[in-house]
Task: structure prediction
Amino acid sequence: VTGQQTIRLAVIDDDSGFVTVLAKRVEAAGWQHRHLASAVPLEDLVAMKLNALLVDPAVLGEEGWDYLERICGMLPDLGVVVCTGGSTVTERVRGLRLGVDDWLGKPCHPEEALARIEAVTRRRRRARPQAEVGPLVAGELEIRSDRFQAFVSGASVDLTRREFELLALLAETGGKVLEREAIYQRVWGYAMAHGDRSVDVFVRKLRQKLAKRSPGWTYIHTHFGIGYRFDPAPAEGFRPRAAASQVLHTVDTAR
Amino acid sequence: MARLSLLPRDRTFFDLFIEAGQNALHAARLLDEMIAAWPDAGGLGRDILKAEQEGDRITHEIVKRLNSTFVTPIDREDIYGLATQMDDIVDYTEEAADFMGLYKIDAPMEQAGALTKVLVAACEQLAEGLGSLRDFKDLDRYWIEIHRLENEGDRISRDAVASLFSNGIDPMVVIRWKDIFAVLENAIDATETAAQIIEGIVIKNS
Result:
């Protein structure tokens, strides 16, 4: 595998032999992968932050076509490759027309499956508009996805990767209360275990770092028993600089 | 009627058990504090390690004295058994603290805090009971309460482990916390075993 970037792949297939052989090659390639024995809710796929999905529609049952259509429609950044046995021309055409990126017939060599996933992912990355990585500005804060970092007046807030992802998620949904479970699922990529205080601990760390660089502003508000809301506001008695904005906005051009 | 003894009995064992009880309580309180403030109180791990070393010293002292004393105030096997259990409580407490760092735990689980609170309460009962051991009376309430606390610890631990096996939870979270819950439960179980030994001592000597 020649890709320079790690690919996050999920495989929906119950063919244990194929999945085992494929997993070995995927691991050797340094990709991250999850094996799913059956269809999972769309929001779970979102939380996994996948680049590609390899799916055998035979596992999906009667709702398989609808499921594929919803995935392709709602997750345009996800590369979807079907790998199944005994399909007809009509089925393959239908699948490709509803948004599947590639269609492989079983039996197939796992190396070929990997190469096709890689090709699909590569095309997705090339096609991604550059404006997506433009910074978000909130209060005195500039959140830059292209650098996985936030800045105040050009000085880095020194966020870790996870702290940045948490901040970016809260900022993207600015003004809306996000439940702890939803935050955990989106940032950690898994369901939150009952009683896990990870979200609270990371919000606390994030607040400390933000307060250090931008002491005149509060950014994250607690909704007790529910979760957190991102809404930049000047601290009491603090007069914001003219350049500072309370309104969250996206800068269109990438830096 | 007071028991008569023809040979002198070394009462130092009781003082050493009081020390062991206070040391176990100290370690349990440190662990409770550490988990409540995790990850900001990692430094308390060093204090818990010191308590574990102090526990080893007390146990060693009891065993050394046991080997050099001709007549003991209570049965030898009870002294040895109680010393070992008191040592186990502190060992498990230190192990739980150590796992928090070794497993690179990001944040605490509420159930771990609930378990350390049960451990502290059980150690409080044990420390008080050991303080009254030399009289061999009015100790029932301590082991009854420790038994109740041990049941509560079992329930919390079972629920905590069961919650880890809900769908979609990170397997690494499951592995880490299952181990930590097990060690905390072992520490609480050791308080109950110690209480059972005390119960036996009282029955034999009253």
